[in-house]
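From the pipeline queue, job 12 of 40. The input is one protein chain; the requested action is below.

Action: predict structure.
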Amino acid sequence: MDALARPLWLGLLFLVIGLLVLGQGVVSTHQRRRFRARSVITQAHVLELRQSWLHNTDGPSTIVHTPVVRFALPDGRTVEAATMTGTKPAPARVGDVVDVRYDPDRPTLVDLAHSRAGGLVSCMFVGLGLVFATIGAVLTWLGATHASLR
């Protein structure tokens, strides 16, 4: 392969990956904002903390705590569900009363009212996507410029 053609295909690869990651971040941010806009805040009891392992490729794994909560709907029905995000350290203790947001159309879709964990991940996806897409655009431009000079 010609050394000057490498920036072109490498640039296209970075550009595609960057756009995919950026798209995921934008979609995730939009879904989170939509959930927050239509959700209802109520109080819930923490029934348990589910522990799961978050495996890191470049370091030690860590335990993430996801609360399982119980709350009453306005019509009197009771809902028990795990929140959408888990954190370390645990965001609450078993028996605590916490504010939660839930989707009135799907009450088992619930999260802690003041959780920012999912928002941080969405922002990281947007940022990484922008970086990769920018690198990809520059490399693609360099590859195309070098190819046209030949």
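Job complete. The chain has one domain: 7-149.
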